Amino acid sequence: MTTAEATQETAQHGLKAHSDGDWENRIPVQTRSERPKSTDVEAFEKVTGREAVWKFAPVAKLDALLNGELDGSRVKVAVPSIPGITEEWISRDDERIGRAGTPEERGAAAAWSAFQEAHLVTVSGDEHVTATITRDSLDAAPRAAHTIIEAKANSRGLVIVENTGAAQLSENVEIVVGDGANLTLVSVQQWGSEAIHLASHYATVGRDASFTHIVVSLGGSIVRLNPSIHLDHEGANGEAFGAYFADAGQHLEHQVYMDHDAPHTRSRVTYKGALQGEGAHTVWIGDVLIRRNATGTDSYEQNRNLVLSEGTRADSIPNLEIETGDIEGAGHASATGRFDEEHLFYLMSRGISEEEARKLVVRGFLLEVVGKIGHEATETRLQEAIEAELAESSI
Question: What are the start and end residues of every segment in region (Disordered) (predicted)?
Fold first, then answer.
C-alpha cells in the first residue's frame, strides 16, 4: 500500500476531501455521536454551506469568523464581586479546559484554535447565588473567546450572560455542573443590529445534578447559538429553553443537543420563536440521543414558531435517536403557523381589539420561556424588549 493510500484509508471520515467517485466515504454521518470532533480548525474542511450543520446559515457573511484570523486576546467582561462567585483567567493549556465538550464543526474549532486565555467563573457554596456577566464593550473586529462556568458539587446558582452592543464574536462556552449541584445559565443576545455571534455551549452534568440552559435571542444580524448538554452521570437532569424574535433580514439559529449517556436521566427542551418582516429567518434543530446504557431515560423536546407576517421562514427539525428500549418515555414535536383563531376570538369577545389581542398572544407565547429565568430584573427588561418589538409590528 502506498503512503497516499494509507493516509486516505486512516483519515477520519468527514475531515478530508474525497474524490467524486469515492461514494462510500461520501455517505453523510447520520448519528450525532459519530460526528468528527477536533479543537483544531485545520481538521475541518472550509465551509461551503452544503454541510448538514451549515446548510441553513448565511455562510458567506460568516467568512471572517470561519476562515479569517481571529483576535484571541481577552474579551472585556464585567463580573460582580459577590460571595460564592469567583473569576480568573487561565492559560489555554490549563487542565480545566476541555472537560465539557469538543467542537464538531469549523466555526467552534476556529474559536478554540485562536483563544489565548479562558475566562473561568466558579459557583461555590451551599447558598444560592446570582451573578450577571456583562459583555458590552466589544467592537466589530473578528474575535474568539473561551469561557468556563463551573458549579462545584452541591452548589446552587444562576448565571446570566448579557450580550449587547457591537460584536463579531465566535466562542466556546463550557459548563461543568458538579454532583448534586443546581445551576441555571441564561444567555441573552441583545446585540446591535449589525452584530454577528457564533457560540457553541457544552455542558456536562454530574450525578443527581440539575442544569437549566436558557437562551433569549432578540438582537443581532446573525446569531447562531448551539447548546450541547451531556447527561453523562446517573440521575442527571437537563432542561433547555429558548425564546427568540426575528425581524426583517435577521437570522437566528439554535441547534440543541441532549445526550443521555447514563441511567435514569431526564431532559426537557422547549424553544419558542416569533418572526416578522421580510427575510426574517429562524432555524431550530433539536437532537436527542438516548444511548444504550441510558436506561430509564425520560425525555421530551418541542419547538413552536409563530409567523406574524409574510416573507419569513422558520426551519424546525426535531431528531430523536434511541438505542435502548428500556426507557420511561421519549417524544418530540414541532409546529409553525399563524395565530390560533380560537384564542383571538376568545380575547376579542371580551372587548379587546384584534390588534391588541394578537399582541397579547405573542406576549404570552414568548414570556412563558422568559418567566423561567427566575430573576425579576432580567425578566422585566426582556418583557420590555419584547414589547418594543411588538410596538414596531403591524400584526
Answer: 1-38
Q: pTM, whole model, 2 decimals?
A: 0.89
Question: Which residue type does 120 have?
Answer: L
Please, which residues have CB within 8 angstroms of residue 214's CB and are 6 or more apart in sequence? 184, 185, 186, 187, 240, 241, 242, 369, 372, 373
* Residue matched to cell numbers 462545584: 152
pLDDT digit string (tens) for 155-175?
999 999 999 999 999 999 999
107: cell is 466555526
What residue has cell string 427566575? 374
Can you state the angle between helices 354-370 and 341-348, rounded to 10 degrees? 120
Residue type, 18: H
Q: Which residues contact 170 (CB under 8 A, 6 or more apart)?
A: 65, 70, 107, 108, 110, 111, 142, 143, 144, 145, 197, 198, 199
Q: How confident is the model at residue 33 (pLDDT cuts 50, 70, 90)?
A: confident
Other C-beta atoms within 10 Å of 81: how many?
A: 8
3-class DSSP state of 278: coil
Q: Would you state the cell numbers that stand for residue 323, as one nine-digit string?
A: 438505542
Neighbours of 284 (CB within 10 A): 28
SS3 content of the chain, % helix, strand, coil (to 5): 20, 40, 40
Sequence spans of domains, the chain? 32-339
Residue recorded with cell 474524490: 19
Q: What confidence tens digit (pLDDT) does each residue in 356-392 have?
A: 777 777 888 899 999 999 999 999 999 999 988 888 7
